[in-house]
Automatic annotation (TrEMBL), chain B:
Coiled coil: none annotated. Keywords: Cytoplasm. Transmembrane segments: none annotated. GO terms for molecular function: small GTPase binding. Signal peptide: none annotated. This is Cytoplasmic FMR1-interacting protein. InterPro entries: CYRIA/CYRIB_Rac1-bd, Cytoplasmic_FMR1-int. One of its GO terms (biological process) is regulation of actin filament polymerization. Residues 64-277 form the CYRIA/CYRIB Rac1 binding domain. GO terms for cellular component: cytoplasm.
Length: 169, 1285, 75
């Protein structure tokens, strides 16, 4: 079973995503989560102890910008992988669906054959059947009625419902 | 998108963030729920004046005031905690076991346990007592400080007065809560009893517990101590009057945002007036300074008429949770109360506008519509072409005003809802007012369940949906709004400070008004953000000189940042001091500033009031509708039930009342708003967790939500299935039948279509958030609908199993209705395949034959065969009237009693359909057979025919009581031979002769009962098989015709003389090539698909009706059964045929025919047609045809002979009680019938190659050889004339 | 104080600048949270769709399996 899974992984990208990309991206996020925690502590202490407050502040600012950029990037990468995963999953599910549909049709064809065999036991050929057509062409083609133009009579619907009657102009 | 190591700049970071938007995130679920999300991010920069020392340039006094402010805010926080402990207090003493008597041995242990349990609770009460004591002291100290002689003249800022007002409000709440909560007192007294018994307390603790019990026991304790201390301060009434007036001013100019702020203002007004008004001290030594609000009104210090109008406008105000209070009651309790002074509120006749909710609805609806459309316009504008950078000030202003208007709208609507709710809580209905309210209804039930009319409920639902809908829309635009607000606030603030203030600064510097100058400069320095980093030195205004010729323009920077809370507070307070017109006698500062600048400052001051709310847009958006969460809390009413109720059932809970109302009334417009009342639970749960911080409250909300959601899902799915079933039932109902009914409308019987309802959007909900859990409603509904569809199919089959075979037509119609329902529902839900469901319900998945097949077979054998009589004219089997020949008295199962939506949808449609299908009830004919053919399929029919043939075999030559045995018996009794008498014996004579000859058979008792019954059953089997085959071939032909276009069999087109048919056909085929399945799939599909399609194509072509016949096999099978000699009789003596001998079956059949041709004399007797139908004749004739005796029968039959003779001698006489004429008529009729039967049988027997004709044993006879000289010659008969020799 | 710029004013100016950076950071955090919420909603939608298809498939396979294995329906 494992062997088959391996060669299937080669050909089916979904396992590639599942096995590497997503855990990797998640790992990145976890790491950055931990790092940022440490970084925050460091900045706070640095600001408290450091005499030159301004420099500490600038350093913190810089760190925040880096953090923002990296987190945004990681989130983007992670969501991209997830989206890929979903797309591949869709493909895989539709493959499964076609297979099941085939199975279903094969089974129903088979069951129909059994039914035919059972009824066949009860049936004997009695007359050569020649197909006579049920729909006979009309002797002469119906001629489409020509379009005659009639002016619109606006008061034709007046008697429906309780509308206001227009004086026939 | 890049992560370029350590040196990415801010710009890179921002591009990374905006890069996130490129990922397409489709979500096509109709949004019908409130504003909530998995991750809520709120950045709150409220510093509570921690950074006050940073703004040294600000006026020192206001900085110091800021410190007081922050400590008062903390006091308010703590006050809120205590209020929460009081409100959410549940009595635990009731559940503590009390020792029955003093000697009870374990009472010491009980008391110890009680003390141990109640100790932490009592600690809370102690902290409450000390807190209120300390709070009153702090408050009175503050008041004393402000009422000090020289302080009177000084200016007290609006924010400060408001904070004092909030403190007063806190005292009012704590006081009312303490009064209301009797459970607190009971718990404490139990504790005290236990503690005293244990004598564990030292004297100091005793004293403390004494104070506490006194504190808890005396009603209005906090209020009275507060009043006492206040009255010691001379001039306190003046300050309180200021507070009251500022509240009045803010109330009238709507300077509040949240509903609870508005209510707080009204409460403060009421409670402060109560505090001011006091009894004048009788003895002078008592240094107290109470005053009289009515005197103050004469001194124009208070305007009571305004208060009167307010207290009338808002009779009931929510105090805390579900506790309500009527502010005017405070006034009534004041010593100098004078009803005349309060014309509006005192009169109890007129009811205030608060309870008249419906009146406000049109206006709310209209404002909602306008605002939402405006919001949409802005949203499109932004999303289409406005990037956030280049928005100009005007846009930002417009957007922030839009945001503010939105928040205000939501707030007003929520206020309407909360005020109606609170009014209703204080005015529960009673059985007289509201008829539906039962006598024994509980207090809370009368306040919620029966207290709202249907319109009010709909109005509530509508307004709540508007609130939550708008909240969601604005929540979605939160980023845009907060950006715009920050930019707008910054721009306004800097423009005001750097530009508008220049003029007043110039004037004050010129006219040496140094106090105002210092204030203005300090304002500018506190908050100004100069464009190039420092204040322009060369600004003439700061020197008091004119700008000179060129307009001295100051460039003002633009940033997207808001002032810090302290900065804003300082600026606003300082500006307020400038424009404040009450400054205690000394010339007010406002005189030093000219009119227009004064107006500008005032306008800025008013406008900036809302900035704190706007800057925390996200929190304000949540908070503005947070009061809806109070609709669920009912601690006050729980307390009133004195322990009878631990929690109220869901029927009394407001959110559920609204949900159920929608579900019950099924109003389409409200149906789509059903998730909003469910969202109220989210709010209550949120409030329980964040504000009350009580786990048990959250658990109760959660428990109720679990129950309500189950109920909701159950009822919704039930409604959906019944709606679509009714729709399918109505669509499927025969149109003419419906027109007929509509023509003569009976008053309570109408068959109209169900009113269209909007379940679609509910069914498409795939992720609804309830209490933080994401629920896939589509999945839940799908499961339930699957189950109910399966059940309705089972019910259809069970109904068929509970009735006779004729009900199969109704079954087929019911299955079609279910199929239509399934099809309509599959548009939204991924239901299982209908055929699989049918197989499952029919138990046809693992078993070859389903329940329907078995029941059809069962009905055929036990009810159809024995009881039905066939009639060729109508080609129907009909039951003989009230005569049942069923062998055993078998009964069918009872029909299942289920809800209407499991059957036809509604009762009326059900009645209509039963009427329609009653017409199929009386008979079995082609329509039934077609349905049987369709439902059972080949396998079912094969099973039935096999079984029927087994029965025929059983009937023919079964062991006991079969026809073979009876024939043998009759054969013995049959006369050895029975000649055809000559004509000259005349027909009556012949009749008598046969009558005599067949006397024994006529008298044979079993003949008319058992034998005829068996014959009839065999006949019915044969006829049924014939009819079955005809119906089956009709079904097959219709299938083939449906398949034709996909198999390249196209109808012949019309072609005139000159055109060739083949050419036209070719063109037609090319035209419809796309339809030809096999070729297309071969080209496009996979190998497996091609193979499947080819097989499918073959199965569609090869049907039974193309060249195969079942009926013929049935006949041959029966023929094979007729092997016994009794059917064929002995070998004919003369080698050719038996003429007179009666050994063959056809002779016997002639006798039998003679018997049933005898006409019936009395009308009580039944003719055999009535009893057995033509099945009898069919059986006889079939046996004769199959044994090849047809010609002999027709030639030698007794009755035919009588017929022929009577035709000749036209005799009409009755002999032996039989009227010859009537007998001959009957014979004539049966002769026609027999010939018809033989015609049909021969058509089937002869046509086939192995038919009867071919294998006829032809015996060839050689002509007699004439040998003249043989003695045997003369034995021949010669005419006398030839005998010459 | 140099060029009329008292250190107090410098602080105020610096405060404005700092707070502006803070606002930029918080607004991008808001944007990210917004994105995450949308992402979460979309994922739930897609998961629900896949779950739906899988459920239907599963029941279909059960039916087929029942048809094929149990009972002598194939003889």
């Amino acid at each position: 079973m494992e062997l088959r899974r391996m060669e299937e992984a080669a050909e089916h990208p979904i396992y590639a995503i599942l096995d590497q990309d997503i855990p990797e991206a998640r790992q990145h996020l976890n790491d950055s989560n931990v790092n940022l925690e440490k970084l925050a502590h460091y900045c706070r202490n640095n600001y408290l102890q450091n005499a030159d407050k301004q420099r500490a502040l600038d350093e913190t600012k810089n760190f925040t910008i880096q953090a923002l950029a990296s987190v945004a990037y990681q989130i983007n990468a992670f969501s991209y992988h997830l989206m890929q995963l979903f797309d591949h999953q869709d493909v895989q599910v539709s493959e499964m669906e076609t297979e099941v549909r085939h199975l279903n049709q094969t089974v129903s064809v088979h069951k129909e054959k059994i039914a035919r065999r059972e009824i066949g036991a009860l049936a004997t050929t009695n007359k050569p059947m020649q197909r006579q057509h049920k729909f006979l062409p009309p002797p002469l083609p119906e001629r489409g009625s020509k379009y005659i133009r009639r002016t619109i009579d606006y008061s034709v619907l007046d008697d429906i419902g309780h509308g206001m009657k227009m004086a026939p102009t | 998108m890049s992560l370029n190591g350590e040196h990415s700049t801010l710009a890179d970071a921002l591009t990374n963030v905006s890069g996130l938007d490129e990922i397409a995130l489709p979500d096509n679920q109709p949004c019908m729920e409130g504003l909530h999300s998995s991750i809520a991010y709120q950045a709150n920069f409220e510093t509570n004046f921690e950074d006050r020392n940073a703004f040294v340039t600000g006026v020192a006094r206001y900085i110091e005031e800021a410190t007081v402010h922050s400590s008062l805010n903390e006091l308010l926080e703590e006050g809120h905690k205590h209020a929460v402990t009081l409100y959410t207090w549940r009595c635990c003493s009731r559940s503590i076991p009390q020792p029955k008597s003093n000697e009870q041995p374990d009472r010491v242990e009980i008391y110890e346990m009680t003390v141990e349990v109640l100790k932490p609770e009592v600690a809370k009460l102690l902290s409450l007592m000390y807190f209120q004591h300390e709070a009153i002291d702090r408050f009175c100290a503050e008041v004393k400080r402000l009422c000090h002689a020289e302080k009177r003249k000084d200016f007290v800022s609006e924010a400060y007065l408001l904070t004092l007002g909030k403190l007063i409000n806190m005292f009012a709440i704590l006081d009312e809560l303490k009064n209301m909560k009797s459970s607190v007192k009971n718990d404490y007294s139990t504790y005290r009893r236990a503690a005293q018994f244990l004598k564990s307390q030292d004297s100091q603790a005793l004293q403390e517990s004494q104070n506490l019990s006194m504190f808890l026991a005396t009603q209005n304790r906090i209020r009275s101590t507060l009043k006492e201390n206040l009255e010691k301060i001379e001039g306190f009434d003046d300050l309180l009057a200021d507070i009251v007036n500022i509240c009045l001013y803010m109330y009238e100019t709507h300077m509040y945002l949240f509903p609870h702020e508005k209510h707080m203002l009204v409460k403060v007004m009421g409670f402060s007036l109560f505090l001011i008004d006091g009894e004048a001290p009788t003895n002078p030594s008592d240094k107290r300074f109470p005053s009289n609000i009515y005197k103050m009104e004469q001194k124009k210090r208070l305007n009571l008429s305004k208060f009167d109008r307010i207290f009338k406008g808002l009779e009931v105000v929510p105090l805390f949770g579900d506790m309500q209070i009527a502010p005017f009651q405070y006034l009534v309790k004041t010593p100098h109360y004078d009803a005349a002074k309060w014309p509006l509120s005192a009169s109890s006749t007129t009811t205030g506008p608060q309870s008249n909710f419906l009146e406000a609805i049109p206006q709310i609806r209209e404002s909602h519509l306008n605002f939402v459309s405006e919001l949409a316009r802005h949203r499109n504008q932004i999303s289409v072409f406005q990037s956030e950078g280049d928005r100009i000030d005007a846009d930002n202003r417009e957007l922030s005003e839009l945001a503010l208007r939105g928040l205000k709208l939501i707030s007003t609507w929520t206020t309407h809802v909360v005020e109606l709710y609170s009014w209703k809580l204080l005015h529960p209905t009673d059985p007289h007012l509201n008829k539906e309210c039962p006598m024994e209804s509980e207090e809370y039930e009368r306040a919620t369940r029966y207290n709202y009319s249907t319109d009010e409920k709909f109005a509530l639902i509508e307004v709540i949906s508007m609130i939550k809908g708008l909240q969601l829309l604005m929540g979605k635009m939160e980023i845009v709004f907060s950006e715009a607000i920050k930019r707008h606030v910054y721009a306004d603030l800097q423009d005001f400070v750097q530009l508008t203030l220049r003029e007043p600064l110039r004037k004050t510097v010129k006219h040496k008004k140094d106090l105002v100058k210092t204030i203005i400069t300090s304002v500018r320095e506190t908050v100004a953000d100069w464009v190039n980093g420092y204040e322009p030195q060369d600004d003439p205004a700061s020197k008091g000189r004119k700008d000179g010729d060129g307009k001295y323009d100051v460039k003002v920077a633009r940033r997207c940042v808001a002032p810090s809370s302290t900065q804003l507070y300082m600026v606003r307070t300082m500006l307020e001091s400038l424009i404040s017109d009450k400054s205690g006698g000394k010339r007010t500062l406002r005189k030093d500033i000219e009119g227009p600048y004064l107006m500008a400052i005032d306008a800025f001051h008013k406008q900036s009031f809302y900035w704190p709310y706007l800057l925390n847009f996200r929190e304000s958006l949540q908070e503005v509708a947070a009061d809806l969460s109070q609709l669920w809390y009912r601690e006050f009413y729980l307390e009133m039930t004195m322990g009878k109720r631990i929690q109220f059932p869901i029927e009394m809970s407001m959110p559920w009342i609204l949900i159920e109302h929608i579900l019950k009334t099924k109003v389409p417009s409200a149906m789509e708003c059903i998730l909003y009342p469910m969202d109220l639970y989210n709010d209550s749960a949120q409030y329980a967790l964040t504000k009350f911080k009580k786990q048990f409250l959250y658990d109760e909300v959660e428990a109720e939500v679990n129950l309500c959601f189950d109920q909701f899902m159950y009822k919704l799915s039930e409604q959906i299935i019944s709606y679509y079933k009714q729709l399918a039932g109505s669509v499927y109902l025969d149109k003419r039948f419906r027109a007929e009914i509509q023509a003569y409308p009976a008053e309570n019987f109408h068959l109209d279509f169900p009113t269209a309802n909007r379940y679609a959007s509910l069914m498409r909900q795939r992720h609804v958030q309830i209490l933080g859990r994401w629920i896939d409603m589509n999945h839940l509904i799908r499961q339930r609908i699957n189950a109910s569809l399966l059940k309705s199919i089972e019910v259809a089959i069970a109904r068929f199993e509970s009735s006779d075979i004729t009900a199969i037509v109704e079954l087929s119609a019911l299955l079609d209705v279910n199929r239509l329902t399934h099809k309509m529902l599959s548009e939204y839900l991924a239901l299982d395949d209908f055929e699989d469901m049918l197989k499952e319900a029919n138990h046809n998945i693992s078993a070859p034959y389903g329940r329907i097949a078995y029941h059809v077979f069962w009905e055929l054998v036990y009810d159809f065969l024995p009881n039905n009589c066939y009639n060729a004219a109508t080609n129907r089997f009909v039951k003989s009237k009230n005569l049942s020949f069923s062998v055993s008295d078998f009964q069918r199962e009872k029909a299942p009693q289920v809800a209407n939506y499991y059957v036809w949808g509604t009762k009326n449609i059900g009645i209509a359909y039963t009427q329609i299908f009653k017409r199929y009830g009386g008979f079995l004919g082609p329509p039934h057979c077609r349905v049987i053919a369709r439902l059972l399929g080949y396998q079912g029919i094969a099973l039935i025919i096999d079984e029927l043939l087994k029965i025929v075999k059983q009937l023919l030559n079964g062991p006991n009581g079969s026809l073979a045995t009876y024939n043998k018996v009759l054969m013995k009794v049959m006369p050895r031979s029975c000649k055809l008498q000559r004509y000259d014996y005349t027909s009556p004579g012949i009749l008598e002769f046969y009558y005599a000859q067949l006397q024994d058979i006529i008298q044979y008792p079993e003949l008319r009962t058992e034998m005829f019954q068996s014959f009839r059953q065999i006949g019915n089997v044969i006829l049924f098989c014939l009819m079955m085959e005809q119906s089956l071939s009709q079904e097959e032909i219709s299938d083939i015709l449906f398949g034709d276009p996909f198999q390249k069999n196209l109808p012949r087109p019309f072609c005139r003389g000159d055109e060739k048919l083949e050419v036209k056909m070719k063109r037609l085929e090319n035209k419809y090539a796309a339809l030809h399945v096999v070729s297309n799939v071969d080209k496009l599909g996979s190998k497996k698909q091609a193979e499947l399609v080819r097989e499918g194509d073959l199965l569609t072509k090869e049907r039974l009706c193309c060249g195969l016949s079942i009926f013929e096999t049935v006949l041959n099978r029966i023929k094979a059964m007729l092997t016994e000699s009794v059917w064929h009789g002995e070998k004919p003596a003369n080698g050719i045929m038996n003429v007179d001998e009666c050994s063959e079956f056809h002779r016997l059949w002639s006798a039998i025919q003679f018997v049933f041709c005898i006409p019936v004399t009395t009308d009580t007797e039944f003719t055999i047609e009535q009893l057995f139908g033509e099945g009898l004749n069919w059986a006889g004739c079939t046996i004769i045809a199959l044994t090849g005796q047809q010609l002999r029968f027709e030639a030698l039959d007794f009755c035919y002979h009588i017929l022929r003779v009577q035709k000749v001698d036209e005799k009409d006489v009755t002999c032996k009680g039989i009227s010859l004429k009537r007998m001959v008529d009957r014979i004539r009729r049966f002769q026609i019938l027999n010939s018809q039967i033989f015609g049909v049988l021969n058509k089937y027997l002869k046509s086939g190659d192995n038919g009867y004709g071919a294998s006829e044993p032809v015996v060839t006879f050689h002509p007699p050889s004439f040998s003249p000289n043989n003695a045997a010659n003369n034995i021949h008969y010669h005419r006398p004339a030839d005998l010459r020799q | 104080t140099q060029g009329g710029l008292s250190d107090h004013q410098k602080n105020i100016q610096q405060d404005w600048a700092n707070r502006e950076l803070i606002e930029v950071i918080t607004s991008s955090l808001k944007k990210m949270t917004d994105f995450l919420n949308h992402f979460d909603v979309t994922c739930r939608e897609r998961l629900s769709l896949i779950n739906e298809r899988l459920c239907v498939l599963e029941r279909k396979v059960d039916v087929l399996e029942a048809m094929v294995t149990k009972g002598e329906t194939l003889s």
